[in-house]
Amino acid sequence: MEDLARVKVDSREGSLSYLGAEWILLRVEALQGMFDETVKAFGSGAYTIWYLAGKGAGRSMARLIIGLKEETLVEEIVERVCRELTRLGWGRFEAEKIDVKEGKYRFRVYNNPFARGKEAVKETACLYIKGYLEGLMEALTGREVKLRERVCVAEGAPYCEFESE
After folding, report:
1. pTM of the entire structure?
2. Which of 44, 82, 98, 152 has the fewest Cβ atoms within 10 Å of its own Cβ atom?
3. How many angstroms separate the CA atoms of 141 and 101, rounded?
4. CA distance 15 to 18
């Protein structure tokens, strides 16, 4: 409940803010439906759209957290982003390995909303999350980051795991 105390709702204007930024609440079913409908409309091109959207969102979240000036080290910022994403219902994000010097990263996402309850091919179910994590790390390190999804909830794994190549 203390997390919810930091959310500010303006019923008159129809807005919600958290961490000094505007947000919206979206049902998981609606998110999955948007993904499915874009795939129907654009075929495999939809995967690129979701991947790039995730990458942009990851960069944006990095800028938001950096702007709060509470954490300064990349590792601290990544841990903060993982906590915030978990609080916001995007699943439980864990940074298993963050080695900026070597460019080695591993993330686990439990209860991923894109893969939750879906029978999908792992390469497509989690492209938004993959892009998000790449965009986040690129914004924080200034270097290109490529992640590979090693296991996926959509294939029956207990989590989705993304690791640097």
Report:
1. 0.92
2. 44
3. 9
4. 10
